[in-house]
Write a structure and sequence with these properties.
This protein is α+β, with helices and mostly antiparallel strands. The chain has seven helices and twelve strands. Helix 4 packs antiparallel against helix 5, helix 5 crosses helix 6 and helix 6 packs antiparallel against helix 7.
Length: 271
C-alpha cells in the first residue's frame, strides 16, 4: 500500500509542527517569527523544498484559514502554489511550493558587505522594474476580479529571482472579500503603502484603496520610496498615473484596479 506524503496528504498531526517537520525531513531554515506571530520554515522532504507556515493562536489560525480561501479562488504563476493545509494539536499549517529568489525585504541578517535586496532591486534598469510591476498589477487585477481586497501588501511580500528576472508574491493571509469596513483604525501594513482610509475607523476599504497601494508600490520600486519626479526612473506619463493613483482623496483616484492598470499600460508607450 503506498505511503501517504507526510506534507501533501495529511490532514492532521498529533505532535507539534517543528518536531513533526524534523521527523519527516530536514528544516534547512527557520524564519524569524512574523509580526503576526506565525512560524515559517524551509523544509526538505525527499530532496524537495517546501515552505511551511504555522499559526498557533486563534488570530493566526483565522488568518491562515483566510489564506486557504484566497488561494482556492486565485491562482497565478507568480503566486506560490498552496498544496495542503492541516491541523496540529495547537494550530494550523499551510504547505506551499518553495520558490527561488531573494526577499526584497529579506527575513535574514545581511552580511556587512551586502547590498540590501531592495536597493539592489531599485538599481535595476527601469524596464526590468516595470516588467516586475506589471506582474504585480496583473495579479491584483485577477484578485479584484475574484472579489478580494488587499490588506498588508508591501515590498516584504515580494520575492525576486535576480538571475531569472522572475517575481513571486506571497503572504495573502490578510486579503478579504471586497469591500470591508475598517473596524480597527490602523489596519495591518507598512505605512509606505497604506491609503489614508486604512488609518480611519469606519472607513470603507475597497478597490480605490488597492489602487492607492499599487501606486505606492510604483513609487517604492521605481523611485526607491520617493514620490519626487526627480527620482522617478519611468517616463513622465507613468509618474502622473502613479500620482493620480495615490491621491489622498480616494474619489480622485482611479475607480478600480483594472482602470489603474489600463492607464498604466497606456502610459508605458514606447518606454
Amino acid at each position: 500500500m503506498p505511503t501517504r506524503h507526510p506534507l501533501l496528504e495529511v490532514s492532521e498531526i498529533d505532535t507539534h509542527i517543528e518536531a513533526y517537520l524534523k521527523q519527516i525531513g530536514e528544516i534547512t531554515f527557520q524564519f524569524p517569527e512574523h509580526d503576526s506571530r506565525c512560524q515559517s520554515f524551509r523544509v526538505v522532504v525527499d530532496d524537495q523544498h517546501w515552505f511551511v507556515k504555522h499559526g498557533n493562536t486563534p488570530q493566526t489560525i483565522r488568518w491562515l484559514k483566510q489564506a486557504v480561501r484566497f488561494h482556492a479562488a486565485v491562482q497565478h504563476e507568480a503566486l506560490p502554489r498552496l498544496n495542503n493545509a492541516f491541523t496540529t494539536p495547537n494550530g494550523f499549517t499551510l504547505v506551499y511550493n518553495w520558490v527561488d529568489g531573494e526577499g526584497v525585504r529579506p527575513e535574514r541578517e545581511l552580511r556587512p558587505d551586502e547590498i540590501h535586496p531592495r536597493d539592489r532591486f531599485c538599481a535595476l534598469p527601469a524596464t526590468e522594474i516595470i516588467d516586475a510591476l506589471n506582474v504585480i498589477y496583473d495579479v491584483h487585477v485577477l484578485i479584484e476580479r475574484h472579489g478580494f481586497i488587499a490588506e498588508d501588501f508591501y515590498d516584504g511580500c515580494i520575492i525576486y529571482d535576480f538571475e531569472e528576472k522572475r517575481i513571486h508574491l506571497y503572504d495573502f493571509d490578510h486579503y478579504h472579500p471586497a469591500p470591508f469596513i475598517n473596524d480597527r483604525g490602523r489596519l495591518y501594513g507598512s505605512t509606505r503603502f497604506m491609503a489614508p482610509e486604512e488609518f480611519q475607523k469606519g472607513a470603507r476599504i475597497d478597490e480605490r484603496t488597492n489602487v492607492f497601494m499599487l501606486g505606492r508600490t510604483a513609487f517604492v520600486l521605481l523611485a526607491n520610496n520617493s514620490d519626487s519626479q526627480d527620482d522617478w526612473k519611468g517616463n513622465d506619463a507613468l509618474w502622473h498615473v502613479a500620482k493620480k493613483a495615490t491621491h489622498p482623496d480616494k474619489q480622485l483616484r482611479y475607480e478600480s484596479v483594472q482602470a489603474f492598470v489600463s492607464a498604466w499600460h497606456a502610459a508605458i508607450g514606447d518606454f
